[in-house]
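re: ur question from the group chat, yeah i did fold both. here u go
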Amino acid sequence: MSVNSITNANNVVLQPKGGQQMGQSDFLRLMTAQLSQQDPFNPVDNQQMVAQMAQFSSLAGISETNTTLQQISEQLIAQTQLLKDIKAATPAPAPTPPAT
């Protein structure tokens, strides 16, 4: 999820730390700012808030899965390269003479 910045009612700019990717702490900061700035007589719909939290939870799970799959891919690439190196270093077997 790419976010440049968000300005709340007091014109305070909330930006994700680091690059353009939002993390869990950024989401919690934005949610806290949203809750602190809401009108008490017209609060945010509970279903909408729960839906946003569920979406973020799903996104966090997908992001963690992507990280794990990337690590597995890197390990497979390293193992494949090691096998290629072993195969290249192993001398070819001598040909067997034909039986007479």
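okk and heres the other one u asked abt
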Amino acid sequence: MLHYALVFLVIAVIAALLGFTGIAGTAAWIAKVLFVLFLVLAVIAFFRRTS
């Protein structure tokens, strides 16, 4: 999931450099959502493993 977040981040940066602001904003939003989801699942997995 972190891989997909990084892929969407790269897509957002490239789209922003080329002037596609709508696509860049959407890709950046998707990257943020995937990164937050990754963090939540990582924290859950960490606490499940320690208990």
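fwiw on the second one: The first helix runs from residue 2 to 18. The chain has two helices and no strands. idk if thats what u expected
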